[in-house]
Structures are given as C-alpha cells and as structure tokens.
Amino acid sequence: MDMPVLDAPATTAVGPTRTLANFIAGLSLGKVDAVARHAARRHLIDTLGAMIAGATQDATRSVERALDLAGVMPGLIPMAGVERRYDVLSAAYIGGTASHGLELDDGYRAGSVHPGGVVVPAALALGAARHSSGEALLLAVIAGYETACRISAASHPRARWRGFHNTGTAGVFASAATGSVLMGFDADQVENALGTAASSAAGLFTFLAGGDVKRTHSGHAAREGVMAALLTEAGLSAPRGALELKEGYFNAYAGGDTGEVDYRRLDLMAAGGPGLHSPFAVANCYMKPHACCRHIHAAIDAVVDIVTAEDLAAAQVERVEIGTYAVAASHAAVGWSEMTTAQMSFPFVIATALLRRRASIADFGAAERADPAVLALTGRVHAGVDAECEAAYPRLRAAKVVVTTRDGRRFDRHVTEPYGSAANPLSDAAVATKFMELAAPRLGETRAGKVLETLWAVDGLADVAPLAEALAA
C-alpha cells in the first residue's frame, strides 16, 4: 500500500527541534491515516489498562504519600485507577508512575522507550482539566508518541550506554508535545515548550541495581512536560534548537563530541526508520503480553514454544542458552530481590517461563521470587551476545534459544519478532481482553466494559472529562 509521508521534512536551514515543532503544530486528524488512528485508540486502551492496574502498586502509593507529605491539597482532576482527585501536575505524575508499575506498558523498539506511560497520563489529566474533545485527545496522543519515538530512536543506543533511560529523558518532550496540542500551540510555542522541557529530562538505569525508582520515570516525564507547556502558556521563554544545540539534549545525552553525529542536520522525523503499515510511530509500537522487560520477550516466546510443543517439564531441562543483542544480554546479571529487578532479570524470567509457561503479573511477587522451584532453575539459564542478533538491533529484538534436556535432547528456536510487535501484533480482541483483565478488578466488570466501549470510539466524544471520571477508582 502507498503510505502518506510525515509532513515535516528536515532541511539544513531548519533544525530537528523546529522540524518537530512544525510537525506538531501542523498536525490534524485529517493528516493521520486510518491505521495510525486505530493504533492510537489501541495504545490508549492498552496504556489505560496498565495505569488502572498499576494504581495500587507500592511505587504509586509511595508517590501519593509523598504528595501528602509535601502538603499537596485535593484537586479536581481524576486519574485512571486512582481514588483521590489532584491538580493536573500531580495527576499526571501519579498516572505515569502507575502506568509503569507492572511492566505492562507499551514501547517503541527502535528507541527503547515506553511512550504510552508518559503521553496518556499527560493527555488524560490535561484533557480533563481543559474539557478537550476526544479528537483533540487522540491527536495529542499521536503527537506525543511521535515525539517520544523519534527523539529516542535518534539517540538510542548511545544514550543507553551512557546510563540514561529514554522513557524519562525523551519522554519529557513527548509530554510537552501532548500538552502543546491540547493547548493549541503554534510552532513557536511548541518549540518553546520543547526548549523548556529539555531542562527537565531525567532518568538513569541505576534501577538495575535495585529499588523501585524506575516506576517514577514516566511519572516525572509526564508531569514535567505538562509543566513545560504550562510555563510556555504563562510566558516563560526558552532556548530554540534545544535538541541539537552544542549544549543541547542530543549532544549531552547521546554524545556527538567525537564528530560521528552532527545533530544539526539530523532528519528527526525519519529516526527509527519507516513504518510497516503507517509512517506514524504510534502504529509501529509494541504491546506487552508478558509482564516484564521487553528485551526478554523474544526469549520467553521461544522457551514457552519449546516446552509446550515438546511437553517438557521444567525438571527435564538441563540448560537454556540464549543468544541475543548486547542491550538485552546486559540483563543476564540482574538479580531478583525486588519485583522491579525480577522483571528485568533474564535468569528469573526464563526460569519462570520454564516452570509456569508464562510471565504474568502474578509471577513476580515476594513468594514467587522465593519459590525454590523457580530458584533451582535460574542457574540453568545463560544469556550472552549473539553476533547476528546484535547486528540486527534495534531493527529487530531477536533471540536465539537452545534448550538442552537432561537426557541429551536439544531444541532450538530463533525469534525475531516477539509477540505484540507491529509485525506480530495482538488482535483487537486480545487488546480488549488485556484491558478487562487489568481494569475490571479495580473498576468492576460492568463499568470497565462500558469504558472500553467508549474508548474504541473516543474520537467521537465532545468532552473527555466524563471519561476521565469513569476511569478513576
């Protein structure tokens, strides 16, 4: 099929920041193809489900307690899955944290970023506050995804090897873009909001050493991006060209001082490569069928396929050898002392998949992390870098898996597209099922079902504020 081209070509006279600002300010639903529109609805539904289920997680509760300690007063803005009403900024922060609380939020492979957990809470909070239409909300989501994905793809994996977590760093620009659309900014205002957001980009991979701070990265980005848009509306001036300046985001977070990248000439809207069915990034993001780090999903798919097809009991497995790309292989040394680290750990996740043939939310609790049956298998899991998988990354998130049994049998799989990717997507029915499984325990079956029906037709709403209320606990 012939696909439309993103209407914001980069030139040597217009840098990537202005190119992005022009794109955001000039975006309308009429310019968005049907595939991308439908993908935006799907990712809105998927992210809201993750937010509702994540609202009761420890990290989300900690944020709410911290806001109480800071003296934050009750407000008027509802947030998905949350009982209390807050101001716009606090609601976005809580919603973003909740979205990332269970490792079930979506992502963009080329940028190793989780856009939904930043964009959707910002859009919902600000959209409810401003009584935005469903069309405006959907457009803001599309703009936010485009921003998160293009900026992260342009800097990945260089930013990752410098220790930065793209969800927190690139995500702040996405939230600013989301707010810019809902506020009706022109290109000058959008560039100003992006320039303000640049000073709040934050998020480190220190979470691999333990703790639960990773959950707050999307919350911080959601809040600070909205704040950048509000500061722009309030008249605060910001530098132009914040992405490509010598002291700007790309050089600071992803390097460029050695001369291998001239970010001033970057074609930002092409970062991440062409889409499969649409040029819009939201149509090329993945959804998670497994409740853990996406870098491990290809290996999970391979292991579950092997043990299911061959009807292997976990006790029969002598060794699991996994060859993958370097970013994923770095998770081979991660422990499982907390839920966060367990969801990042190759040994724990694959041991779980061997034993239970799944990696669901229920498999990462304290009791599961201490289960002797799982722990006995972790030492049999070995992951390292495979040259072919490394060469294909980030175009592909591949894994080669070999399972050897105690009686000498050997089974292998090569997974290039984990389940949930744009090339191997969840069906609409699977998206709906995932939402109901996550939302119904919190909202009740009837209300969750009505909300889901509304979300499939969200662009027909005159005002999204009632929807936001229906999503709150």
UniProtKB/TrEMBL annotation:
Signal sequence annotation: none
Domain MmgE/PrpD C-terminal: 290-455
InterPro entries: MmgE/PrpD_sf, MmgE/PrpD_sf_1, MmgE/PrpD_sf_2, MmgE_PrpD, MmgE_PrpD_C, MmgE_PrpD_N
Record-annotated MmgE/PrpD N-terminal domain positions: 19-257
Domain of life: Bacteria
GO molecular function, one term: lyase activity
Family as reported in the entry's similarity comment: Belongs to the PrpD family.
PANTHER family noted in UniProt: 2-METHYLCITRATE DEHYDRATASE, 2-METHYLCITRATE DEHYDRATASE-RELATED
The protein's name in its UniProt record: 2-methylcitrate dehydratase PrpD
Organism: Humitalea rosea
